[in-house]
Amino acid sequence: MASVSHNFNSPSPTSQVQLNSISDVLNINWFQKKPDGDDEISLKLNISANLQSLFTWNTKQVFLWDGIIPSKEHAIFGIHTANKYRFIDQGSNLRGKDFNLTLHWHVMPKTGKMSADEIVMAGFWLPDTYR
User: Fold this and answer.
1) Banded model confidence at residue 29, pLDDT cuts 50, 70, 90
2) Which of 15, 6, 2, 5 has the alpha carbon at shortest distance from 118?
3) Helix or strand holding residue 123 (H, E)
4) Which residues lie closer than 8 Å to 109 by C-beta, 6 or more apart?
C-alpha cells in the first residue's frame, strides 16, 4: 500500500531567478575579421528554490546541477552563480533575443526508478547592444 501512495504525490517545487547582470559580453574576432565580431555571453544569477515537495517517504535524494540534496531539510536554498560555459554565437545573432532558464533535477527513490523533471522560467532577454 505504501508504494502505491507514492504515485499520488503531486510535487509542486518552486524556483525564482534574478539575473544580476549579463557580464563579460564580448565581441570577439578570433577566427575571421568581421565588423561586429562574435557574441560571447556569461550570466550571473541569484537562484532560490524550494524543492521540499519532491521529498516523500520514498525519496532517497535529489540530484541538482553538480550536487546532491540529501534531505527535505536541505531542499530550500539560494545560490549566487554564473554559467560554467559561455553562450557563443559565430555572429551577432544573440543580441536582443528572449531566452528561458530551466532548472532540471532527478529524484532518486529508495525503491523504484529514477524520475526527472524541470521548471522553465521565461521572461529573460539579452540586450540589443553591448560593448
Assistant:
1) very low
2) 15
3) strand 115-125
4) 6, 58, 59, 60, 115
